[in-house]
Each structure stands twice: as C-alpha cells, then as structure tokens.
Specification:
The strands form 6 sheets. Strands 12, 15, 16, 19, 20, 23, 24, 25 and 26 form a 9-stranded antiparallel sheet that branches. The chain starts with a helix and ends in an 8-residue tail after the last strand. It is mainly β. It is built from 4 helices and 26 strands.
C-alpha cells in the first residue's frame, strides 16, 4: 500500500480537474477579467463563455454562437434588441441567455442568465457594466434578491427593459436597469381592489401615455397588441396605470391612459346573454344585452369594491359585473 500511495498521488495531479458547475461559475464570476470584442449580446456572450470553458453548458453556448446552433439545441439571436438564447433539448433544462441594454445616456449594461438543472435548479444571473473599450465589470446584484425564493429569471427578448423575476409564492417581481447605470430590484405590489387587467386596443400604431388625466405626454407605447397591464382610480374616462414600470416607461410618478384605447373581452364562453345595467346593481334597469361571445368592450369606470365595471361596446353602454370581464387578448380567463 505504501508503494501505491505515490502513484495514486501522481495520478490525482495529472488527472483533469472536475468540470466547474453552474454554482461554481456563480461563485467565481466576480473575480474574472472580461473583455467583449463587440458591445452587443454576441460580444458579451463570447467574453463570458471564454472564461468558463470548463463548464459544459457555457462552452456549448460559445460553440453554438460561433456555428449558429448545434444538433439538439435551440439557438435564437435577435441583433435588433441585443438578445441571444441557447436552450439545450434534453431530459433536464439547460439554458443560457444574454441581453444588452444601451440607454440614451450612453450607459451600457448586460445580463447573462445560466440554468442547468442537473447541477443546480436555481437559475443564476450575472450583471455587467460594459465600457466603450469592451471591458466588462461584474456588478453587485440589486439589494433584495434572495435566490432561495426564486424560480426563474426572464430576460427581455424585446425592447422591454425589465428582467422578470418569478418567485415560488408570489407574483412576478422584476429587476429594472436605470438610466444612471444601476439595477434596481422592484418587488411585486398587490394591485388595488378596484382595478382591472386590460390590454391596448388602439387604431393608431402608437398609444399616448400621459402624466395626468389629459395632461402632459409621458411617452408612447408602440405595437398595441403587445401590452397588458392593470388600471385603477378612474377619473372622467382616464385610468391610472398601476405599477412603476411599463415597457420602456418609468411610471413610478404616475401614468394615465384614456379608456377609448383600452380593451377587454366578455367571459360568456358558454353563449350566455349578459346584461348591461343603468347603475351598478343587479336591480338596476337593463339598458342593453350582450349576446355575442367574447365581445370586446372598453372599460370606463369601476365601483370602489371592484364588483361592477362600466363598459362601452357595440351593444351599448352600461354597468356589468366585473367577474364577466377578461383582460387577456390572447386566451380565455379561467
């Protein structure tokens, strides 16, 4: 045995080191030196993957980027929004995503998401500041992130800024890259009782969002079919948009939208005839009936308890029980 010991020690020294896990990458990424060849999603991806060649998923991402995909993978590159994604098709979920934000003030920030359920079921998020010379500096995670509570991160594969954070027992939180270069963690806030989920139904290609009812323009949303949000506190046909972030707009100081560009659908999936009433009460006069399934309506007002909503539609204008309304344009509401 004494004669075998030196041989065993020698074999241990020359044997390949155990490949680094995703968790190991997460522990060591801050001490790495990164230089992106180009300040975009592909450049950030290559700089990151070059530093972790001993992780099979990271290495595969780098190869897939260079070859435009491999057998058994889904590869998605969207240069117009600086987004790259690789998903490995197998028994366990393996995924890597990269997103780059270029703010109006010239600030560039990047995020890398890494998941490998064989090693660590918790997704990992890596945030960087990217200088004009390509130097990537790892940033501290925003205050408030607790990985034990997180199920997944969703990097925006569109012009949206926010990183959605899915948690096990709550609705989505999100991480927002600010114009000053910082990342801010925004926990979920419960919507008011008197609120509705709706979508934009605007004949124009852009929809105006204002700082107050009928007031100064805050910004515009493009692509009306892509926006769903919560509205509350109606004032003479104007609705306050609930939350602090809506696409590219910071709405933390208030944002308002007119009912005429909002849409909802009725939930009479079984062909029920719905009654519109003159007042928010089941005893009030019926002023119109809705016989068309999933009719599109525009919300105008809501009672303080949220039980009744005033709507305008092809059938007429009146109050309907809010439980008959659905704010999702893509599918039915349970």
């Amino acid at each position: 045995m004494k004669r075998l010991l030196p041989i065993l020690l020698f074999l241990m020294m020359v044997s390949p080191l155990r490949a680094q896990s995703v968790f190991g990458v997460a522990q060591s990424w801050r001490g790495k030196s990164y230089v992106a060849e180009s300040i975009d999603a592909k450049g950030v991806l290559k700089a990151f993957s070059d530093n972790f060649k001993d992780n099979s998923l990271v290495r595969q991402m780098g190869v897939a980027m260079e070859q435009g995909g491999q057998k058994g993978t889904i590869f998605d590159y969207q240069p117009e929004v600086d987004y790259v994604m690789l998903r490995v098709m197998g028994k366990h979920r393996e995924e890597m995503q990269v997103k780059v934000w270029k703010h109006p003030k010239g600030v560039v920030r990047a995020a890398v998401k890494l998941v490998n359920e064989d090693e660590d079921t918790i997704p990992r998020l890596f945030l960087f500041a990217v200088a004009s010379d390509g130097k990537m500096t790892p940033m501290d995670e925003p205050e408030g992130i607790v990985y034990d509570d997180i199920v997944n991160f969703f990097l925006p594969c569109s012009n949206d800024d926010a990183i959605d954070v899915e948690k096990e027992h709550t609705f989505y939180d999100y991480i927002l890259p600010r114009d000053d270069g910082s990342f801010e963690y925004m926990p979920y806030e419960a919507s008011p009782v008197a609120s509705l989920t709706c979508y934009i139904l605007d004949k124009d290609s852009v929809t105006n969002i204002r700082k107050s009812p009928g007031g100064e323009l805050l910004g515009q949303l493009r692509g009306s079919d892509d926006w769903m949000f919560t509205i509350c506190e109606p004032v003479k046909g104007w609705w306050k948009i609930f939350g602090t972030k809506l696409g590219p707009l910071d709405i933390s100081n208030g944002a308002w939208i007119h009912y005429s560009v909002l849409g909802m659908r009725t939930r009479n999936y079984g062909g029920q005839t719905l009654k519109l009433r003159a007042a928010p009460s089941s005893d009030a006069q019926v002023v119109a009936t809705i016989k068309v399934e999933e009719m599109t309506v525009r919300p105008m007002d809501i009672t303080p308890d949220g039980e009744w909503t005033k709507v305008k539609c092809a059938a007429g204008t009146g109050w309907i029980e809010s439980s008959w309304l659905c704010g999702n344009p893509y599918t039915t509401c349970a």
